[in-house]
Hints:
The protein has twelve helices and 27 strands. The protein has a seven-stranded mixed beta sheet with strand order 12-25-26-27-23-24-13. The chain is an alpha/beta fold. 24% of the residues lie in helices and 24% in strands. It has helices at residues 9-19, 40-55, 74-86, 101-113, 124-129, 148-159, 209-219, 235-245, 267-275, 290-296, 300-310, 321-335, and strands at residues 26-30, 58-64, 94-96, 117-120, 169-172, 187-191, 205-207, 224-228, 251-255, 258-260, 317-319, 337-339, 341-342, 345-350, 357-363, 373-379, 381-385, 405-408, 413-421, 427-434, 452-453, 456-457, 462-469, 494-502, 515-517, 521-525, 535-541. It folds into three domains: 24-255, 3-Layer(aba) Sandwich (Rossmann fold), CATH 3.40.50; 267-337 and 464-540, Glutamyl-tRNA Synthetase, domain 2 (Orthogonal Bundle), CATH 1.10.1160; 347-454, CATH 2.40.240.10. The structure holds adenosine-5'-triphosphate and magnesium ion.
Amino acid sequence: MSEEKSLNFLEEIIEEHLKEGRYTSIVTRFPPEPNGYLHIGHASSICLNFGLTKKYPGYTNLRFDDTNPDTEDTEYVDSIKADVRWLGFEWKHERYASDYFDQLFEFALKLIDKGLAYVDESSSEEIASMKGSPTEPGRNSPFRDRTIDENRDLFLRMKNGEFPDGSRTLRAKIDMAHINMLMRDPILYRIKRAHHHRTGDKWCIYPMYDFAHGQSDSIEEITHSICTMEFVPHRELYDWLIEKLGIYPSHQYEFARRNINYTVTSKRKLLQLVNEGHVTGWDDPRMPTVSGLRRRGYTPESIREFCERIGIAKRDNLVDVGLLEFCVREHLNRIALRRMVVLNPLKLVITNYEQGEEMLTMDNNPEDVSAGNREIPFSAELYIEQEDFMEEPPKKYFRLAPGQMVRLKSAYIIRCEEVVKNPDGSIRELRCVYIPESRSGHDTSGINVKGTLHWVSARHAIKAEVRLYDRLFRVEDPTDEEGDFKEYLNPASLVTVEGAFAEPSLASAGHHDRFQFIRNGYFVLDSSATPETLIFNKTVSLKDGWTRPKTDK
Ligand code: ATP
Ligand code: MG
């Protein structure tokens, strides 16, 4: 079988560029706007941009696209840096579009001096009404033909704060009949008195995205500026500005957004979930944010693997979250330490176990011998899962039932002799006998049983809270449904189990440890846990147990 993977379309372009000598090395950038936390879609852009310069000579910058002071914040800057690093990437230069405000201002003056930009006094409504439509040309603004000197003077006065917010804009002078609506004299600068997270109150005019992005790319000599498909129509303006300014010719390439089902991937919508208290924060383990996935127990390796598997495409599509879960399950299967935890305890007493207690040995990870083993205490009083016992079992029920035998994992075979009840009819405890010759690894009993149960020793077990998660939304694409997307939140996305019992070794669980709770799933210690209060998050189940709601599709 050939292991060679085919190149994606960007790798093909880059290999061609390197071969023909257009570049000897490449420069990419990841350009988040610091107005929220990164989500899984951003992770795919990160893996793509940083991945290309790992594969080919060159480097990647981290550039904060901070031209919109209203929504941006240093908290977001810090979280983005932490997330990129956690995903396993390191940038060459940390840059901010706001670092270039002086230079962008000079670029604007240059356009004015070339007669390619003018100050417009039309209101935003007037500008919109003169824009035309895809089938009709727009109309020229009455302010379009000012002299260069007049434009210069007005633009400087805009900068100096002589005009109120929104009263004037600087526009590129291109063509109000252009077939591409974005080329109909796009706005380059607006007046806005807003405090900027880095430049403070220095500026009252701010460049628009289109006038900052390409220019920042050019200043950093980005060779391949990769963005998502919605920027295809912007490419013409991107190229026009670079050409007219005569600056470094960066080029824009587009790929399709990657979104996953049963969630939303838009910072604005995620912010609503946070602000309205539908989740506990940006790092709520149900969130598709990098910080949420981290808290949920995802590993950087599994996220990179997911991004690699979905690859890149030209057409938008919704990726099945099952693939993300598959990737983390595969990785955790290799690295997770096996532990026994009983979520819904049922007491079990072994009436013929007279030695008090003993230590039994159990592998930490059968997939990885280097993980070693540990000792777990066994005694006459144990807990098993309530769901592992049935008083009146159906045929082929291999778990515990009156008169039936099972093996206790890494311990003995037991048989249920008696069900002791409370006055209200509920089960108080099960009385069982064990087969002394059946100890795992030393079994001479000759008895074969089909079921193996996990258990903990009642006296040694430690209490834990366990949080079980389900999809955040009930439908595949909540933004594609009628009404508000929040109507489709899954009310059962979090189930908290407070009275779980864990084997004692989990008392020393660390935040970087990954666990498989045997027969249940993969778990991680929650970031809010302390040695006194153990809280575990379920990362993913052992198997894909998700049954999709039936649809007519
Ligand atoms: P959102 O709509 O969530 O706010 P955005 O595109 O506005 O996303 P930016 O901070 O501007 O967020 O994005 C930084 C980079 O990540 C951009 O290059 C953008 O194209 C890319 N990106 C954002 N969302 C996705 C996605 N779902 N799939 C792939 N790339 C994405
Ligand atoms: Mg954006």
